[in-house]
Amino acid sequence: MPTDMFSLPRRARRAVIVGFPLLLAVSFTSACTLTGGRVHSAADYRAYGVRTKQAGMDTVARLRPVAQLAGTGPGATLEDAAQEEYSSSCVDDFGFDKGDVTRGGPGYSWTLRYATRADYLTALAHLRAGWKAEGLTVTDVAPWDRPGHPGLPGIQTTDHGIELSLQQAWYTDDPMVHASGECMRYHQER
């Protein structure tokens, strides 16, 4: 009985060489089609965006000590301070979405300012305790240390399909709250 590919007859080798990539391509295409999910209405997508933004605002509002919202003036609201984010991973790379169907994943962030590192760590501990008290699974986000500048640890959770986190910003090292919804297929409004 042959045990390696080179001892197989020529026809069998060709079938394996041609068949395996073809099987892999068909499986991948089928998986992409299945993972696309159902197509929602534009109103469903807008409502999901509102829920995502509200979850982020609720997270910022429960931070103790209270953080200053970066880039805002006196009297600014959480709504004013929300930065809309776009996900490059929620796209139709293979052309499955036809007509007025598109994809999007709502996302928002709030840049925060704390007087001291200790204030941030206190707020982080308070938020962790609150999320755990609600029965949410909280995972740690590792700090991004730079030479001579220790990074800030963070936490994240998922609540009703919305990923929430308090962590260090990628480029500024400022603390940020992120609220990111899942990728959703929906009909565009005309």
Helix and strand arrangement:
Blueprint: H1 10-35, E1 39-40, H2 42-61, E2 68-69, H3 78-81, E3 83-85, E4 101-104, E5 107-113, H4 117-133, E6 139-141, E7 154-159, E8 162-168, E9 175-181, E10 184-187
Q: What is the count of DSSP helices, taking H or I runs of 4+ residues?
A: 4
Please tally the β strands and state the result.
10
Percent in helix: 25-40%
- The SS-based structural class is alpha+beta
Mean pLDDT over all positions: 86
Main sheet record: 7 strands, antiparallel
Order of helices and strands: HEHEHEEEHEEEEE
How large a portion of the residues is in β-strands, by DSSP E? 15-25%
Describe it for me?
The chain is α+β, with helices and mostly antiparallel strands and 190 residues long. The chain is 35% helix and 24% strand. It is built from four helices and ten strands; from the N terminus they run H-E-H-E-H-E-E-E-H-E-E-E-E-E. The longest helix has 26 residues, at 10-35. The termini are far apart.
